[in-house]
Write a structure and sequence with these properties.
mainly alpha; Ferritin; 72% helix; DUF305 domain-containing protein; DUF305_CopM-like
Length: 132
């Protein structure tokens, strides 16, 4: 399975920054597709989960949609079929729009939850009350 995966994918398995996909005509389509899927899989497996289904779904769908974009870019590099090229371009546009919506949702979710959490768990508040 490691064959066809980019070195960047194999390196830094636990890093927060996912490998970047580059669609290049220097690589055959199957290699590009395998790289895109490997990056997508790693992104989905390392998505920050918090046990809330809404959050976890969105967190995993961002890399899933990015994988679709990357695969569409790979076919654009290799296909001459205009119907498939149009389909791929539509996938890129739509999936990127959906990623933007999901990232905005995640920002709102994180902002709402970061405001609530510190008030309940701030150690300095507990320490200041202990001295009174």
């Amino acid at each position: 399975m490691a064959q066809g995966q980019p070195a960047a994918h194999q390196h830094g398995q636990g890093s927060a920054t996912p490998a970047t996909f580059v669609a290049s005509s220097a690589k055959p389509y199957d290699q590009l597709a395998n790289e895109a899927m490997a990056i997508m899989d790693r992104g989905m497996r390392s998505a920050p989960m918090d046990g809330v289904p809404d959050h976890d779904f969105v967190a995993m769908m961002v890399p899933h949609h990015q994988g679709a974009i990357d695969m569409a870019k790979a076919i654009l590099v290799h296909s001459k079929d205009q119907e498939l090229r149009n389909l791929a371009q539509g996938i890129i546009t739509e999936q990127q729009n959906e990623i933007n919506v999901m990232r905005a949702w995640l920002r709102r979710y994180q902002a709402a939850h970061s405001r609530a959490a510190p008030a309940a768990q701030t150690p300095t508040d507990k320490d200041s009350h202990a001295h009174h």
